[in-house]
């Protein structure tokens, strides 16, 4: 029975996805809106099932449930539900409304749930492929648009390369440990007194594969092009759920099976974190397209979150989880604003198109300004606390240099976030954007409200993420 | 002894044909070398005692995938010379990365150590009382059942993806409608033109205002 309850979220999502697929195929008329709404309901039911799943592992430890996986799962579901609500109006306007869109998002969420709960390198890899395959198709969803096709192709080729690197790393680790199970790998690494070069290279390769998927520098090259080329509704999804899922997996893999090798990979994570922060800050300065700007911004944000992993402590993981949750909410709101940018049904993406927004639509300008300030990490908005937690964890683990780089890059990054606000409030122009759908208004409103009000009520998130971080270390202790 | 010789022969052919796959100028030759590489890999599987995998490799990869490749390469008009453009420019970077990877692989081989428990797994790759196929089936449908089902889902996504990216919604197939064919009149379909001797077909089409041919 425990087995059923633990697998039920995955099982339910798969069945829901297939039922909707069949319904969409055989229905006479286009029911995309109904299927999108049903998908959001399905995600909500899955959230309930995830809470009902008992702690433990099933299928010979291939699937693991604990507070950490629950936390990450909920973030993934929130991200997916948010991206789905943003998609409705946008997809209609740009003429890419097809019922496969919500179905593919559901399928990729299955991959993410499996990924987050993986207890074996095999489930890890399959979860990845399920997630990525659906994402490749989603990137190309506006298939008559040459840029969308280009984005999908680029993402596919580089994604396949990173999967190859990941698999090569997995094979080296398997060659060393003789097993793919996380628990047994941790045992094998812990018992081995000497550092084996083969397993170290394997771990580095696995890490590179995962860093590629969260677009941490120097494996970020694909991000700006894919973010820019994909339809905005898909970009909103890319920036939220898959990143959180892969990051959660990165935390679990590095601090679970590879925890005995902490001394070997810690420097590497520091380098990746520092590079991401620097590239995220410097790369965004010259951008005039707001989606490219957000791509660099997300690279930078991954760098800050990686700082928590580099710390390698409970405080670090807690900081990274809080950061991810706050980042998820901010991104959803910001992409809501980006999706709302359209004139006569055609999406516009230049930052200059926002000129004069403050006098035309004060509420929109205020929400985007709040989100941009939060992304820059200005107190008392939520983004500040996310950074605060990871900086504190880094300093406590003696990573002072990393923390200094982090503070310096957030000061640089503040420049381009503030530029967006400056364009909205001080430049003259007439945006003349189309009316926004209720779903987009809801997402922007909620995320801006959460961003502002987080300072008054931070305890739920910090408590829950503390539980999650402790669960991660508890399950890694054998 | 004979098994050793066979291993080195197959392995050598495998390596050579793998190199030929990426260096052959003619892309059809590349695919044929790929098939040769697959067959040699299958022979290595047989030597390692994995007959089932060897057969699957031949049937699936040689029989289906490689033949499909061959069709695609022959039917698509891919300009491989254009694909090789920029090779000179990127060669130094590629060689550097390749060299670093080779050094890493070299280090791995020189200092290869195995976890203490892992020797046992390697010594008994096959349960003694089961045949190859039965042992695989036993693992796939019990131990790895979850992964197996997930892979099925992966195939479903691949199928949905292929349809989403290529399917165009044409309202019904183009059927023959005999009624409309019967009701067509001569002047709807035929234009009578008097041709001046020595004037080309082009001028006629310009005169009558209809495309000829």
TrEMBL record, chain A:
Catalytic activity annotated for this protein? a quinone + NADH + 5 H(+)(in) = a quinol + NAD(+) + 4 H(+)(out)
An example of a Pfam family matching this protein is Proton_antipo_M
Keyword check for Cytoplasm, yes or no: no
- Bilayer-spanning residue ranges: 6-26, 33-51, 71-89, 101-118, 124-143, 155-177, 189-212, 233-256, 268-286, 293-314, 320-341, 362-382, 388-418, 438-457
Membrane topology classification? Multi-pass membrane protein
Alphabetically list the UniProt keywords.
Cell membrane, Membrane, NAD, Oxidoreductase, Quinone, Translocase, Transmembrane, Transmembrane helix, Transport, Ubiquinone
The record's subcellular location field reads:
Cell membrane; Endomembrane system; Membrane
Please verify whether the record's keywords include Nucleotide-binding. no
Q: Which domain of life is it from?
A: Bacteria
Per the UniProt record, which EC number(s) apply here? 7.1.1.-
Q: Which residues form the NADH:quinone oxidoreductase/Mrp antiporter transmembrane domain?
A: 118-412
Cite the GO molecular-function annotations of the record.
oxidoreductase activity
Q: Which residues form a coiled coil?
A: none
Give the similarity note: Belongs to the complex I subunit 2 family.
Assembly and interaction partners: NDH-1 is composed of 14 different subunits. Subunits NuoA, H, J, K, L, M, N constitute the membrane sector of the complex.
NCBIfam families, from UniProt?
NDH_I_N (TIGR01770), PRK05777.1-3 (NF004440)
Describe the function of this protein: NDH-1 shuttles electrons from NADH, via FMN and iron-sulfur (Fe-S) centers, to quinones in the respiratory chain. The immediate electron acceptor for the enzyme in this species is believed to be ubiquinone. Couples the redox reaction to proton translocation (for every two electrons transferred, four hydrogen ions are translocated across the cytoplasmic membrane), and thus conserves the redox energy in a proton gradient.
What HAMAP family does the annotation carry? NDH1_NuoN_1
* Protein name (Swiss-Prot/TrEMBL): NADH-quinone oxidoreductase subunit N
Instruction: Please give the organism.
Output: Acidiphilium iwatense
Phylogenetic lineage: Bacteria, Pseudomonadati, Pseudomonadota, Alphaproteobacteria, Acetobacterales
From TrEMBL, chain B:
**What subcellular locations does the record give?**
Cell membrane
Query: Which PANTHER family does UniProt cross-reference here?
Result: NADH-UBIQUINONE OXIDOREDUCTASE CHAIN 6
The Swiss-Prot or TrEMBL record annotates one GO molecular function as: oxidoreductase activity
Annotated TM spans: 6-24, 31-50, 56-78, 90-110, 144-165
The entry's family comment says: Belongs to the complex I subunit 6 family.
Keyword NAD (UniProt) = yes
Chief location bin: membrane
Write the Enzyme Commission number(s) for this entry. Answer: 7.1.1.-
Name of protein: NADH-quinone oxidoreductase subunit J
UniProt keywords, alphabetically: Cell membrane, Membrane, NAD, Oxidoreductase, Quinone, Transmembrane, Transmembrane helix
Q: Which domain of life is it from?
A: Bacteria
Coiled-coil positions are none
- Briefly state the protein's biological role: NDH-1 shuttles electrons from NADH, via FMN and iron-sulfur (Fe-S) centers, to quinones in the respiratory chain. Couples the redox reaction to proton translocation (for every two electrons transferred, four hydrogen ions are translocated across the cytoplasmic membrane), and thus conserves the redox energy in a proton gradient.
Membrane topology note: Multi-pass membrane protein
């Amino acid at each position: 029975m425990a087995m059923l309850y633990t697998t039920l979220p995955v099982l339910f999502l798969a069945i829901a996805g297939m039922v909707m697929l069949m319904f969409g195929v055989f229905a006479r008329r286009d029911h995309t809106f109904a299927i999108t709404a049903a998908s959001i309901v399905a995600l909500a039911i899955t959230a309930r099932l995830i809470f009902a799943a008992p702690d433990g592992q099933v299928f010979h430890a291939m699937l693991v449930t604990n507070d950490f996986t629950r936390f990450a799962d909920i973030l993934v579901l929130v991200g997916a539900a948010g991206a789905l609500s943003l998609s409705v109006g946008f997809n209609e306007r740009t003429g890419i409304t097809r019922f496969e869109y919500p179905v593919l998002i559901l399928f990729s969420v299955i991959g993410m749930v499996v990924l987050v709960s993986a207890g074996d390198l095999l489930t890890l890899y399959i979860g990845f492929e399920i997630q990525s395959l659906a994402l490749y198709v989603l990137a190309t969803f506006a298939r008559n648009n040459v840029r969308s096709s280009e984005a999908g192709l680029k993402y596919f080729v580089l994604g396949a390369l990173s999967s190859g690197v990941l698999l090569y790393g997995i094979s080296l680790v398997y060659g060393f440990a003789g097993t793919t199970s996380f628990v047994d790998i941790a045992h094998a690494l812990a018992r081995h007194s000497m550092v084996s070069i083969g397993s170290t290279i394997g771990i580095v390769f696995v890490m590179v594969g995962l860093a590629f998927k969260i677009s941490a520098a120097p494996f970020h090259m694909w991000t700006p092009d894919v973010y820019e080329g994909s339809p905005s509704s898909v970009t909103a999804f890319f920036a939220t759920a898959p990143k959180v899922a892969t990051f959660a997996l990165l935390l679990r893999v590095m601090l679970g099976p590879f925890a005995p090798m902490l001394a070997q990979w810690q420097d590497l994570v520091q380098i990746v974190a520092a590079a991401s922060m620097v590239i995220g800050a410097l790369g965004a300065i010259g951008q005039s397209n707001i989606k490219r700007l957000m791509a660099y911004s997300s690279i930078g944000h991954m760098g800050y979150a990686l700082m928590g992993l580099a710390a390698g402590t409970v405080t670090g993981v807690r900081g990274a989880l809080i950061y991810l949750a706050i980042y998820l909410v901010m991104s959803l709101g910001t992409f809501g604003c980006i999706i709302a940018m359209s004139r006569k049904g055609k999406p516009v993406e230049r930052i200059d198109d926002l000129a004069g927004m403050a006098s035309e639509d004060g509420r929109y300008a205020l929400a985007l300004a709040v989100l941009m300030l939060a992304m820059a990490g200005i107190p008392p908005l939520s983004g500040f606390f996310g950074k605060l937690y990871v900086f504190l964890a880094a300093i406590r683990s003696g990573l002072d240099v990393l923390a200094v780089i982090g503070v310096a890059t957030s000061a640089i990054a503040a420049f381009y976030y503030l530029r967006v606000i400056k364009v909205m409030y001080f430049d003259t122009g007439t945006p003349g954007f189309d009316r926004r759908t209720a779903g987009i208004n809801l997402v922007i409103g909620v995320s801006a409200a959460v961003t502002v009000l987080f300072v008054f009520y931070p305890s739920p998130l910090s408590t829950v993420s503390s539980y999650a971080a402790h669960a991660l270390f508890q399950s890694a202790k054998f | 002894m004979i098994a050793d010789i066979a291993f080195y022969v197959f392995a050598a052919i495998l390596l050579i044909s793998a190199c030929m796959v990426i260096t052959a100028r003619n892309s059809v030759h590349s695919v044929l070398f790929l098939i040769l590489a697959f067959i040699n890999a299958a022979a290595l599987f047989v030597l390692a005692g994995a007959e089932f995998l060897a057969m699957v490799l031949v049937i699936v990869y040689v029989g289906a995938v490689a033949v499909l490749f061959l069709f695609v390469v022959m039917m698509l008009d891919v300009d491989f010379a254009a694909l090789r453009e920029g090779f000179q420019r990127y060669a130094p970077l590629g060689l550097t990365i390749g060299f670093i990877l080779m050094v890493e692989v070299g280090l791995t081989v020189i200092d290869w150590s195995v976890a203490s428990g892992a020797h046992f797994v390697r010594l008994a790759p096959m349960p003694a009382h089961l045949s190859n196929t039965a042992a695989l089936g036993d693992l796939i449908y019990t131990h790895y059942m979850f992964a197996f089902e997930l892979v099925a889902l992966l195939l479903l996504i691949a199928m949905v993806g292929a349809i989403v990216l290529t399917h165009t919604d044409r309202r019904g197939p183009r059927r023959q409608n005999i009624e409309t064919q019967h009701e067509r009149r001569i002047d709807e379909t035929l234009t009578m033109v008097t041709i001046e001797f020595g004037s080309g077909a082009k001028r006629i089409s310009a005169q009558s205002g209809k495309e000829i041919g």
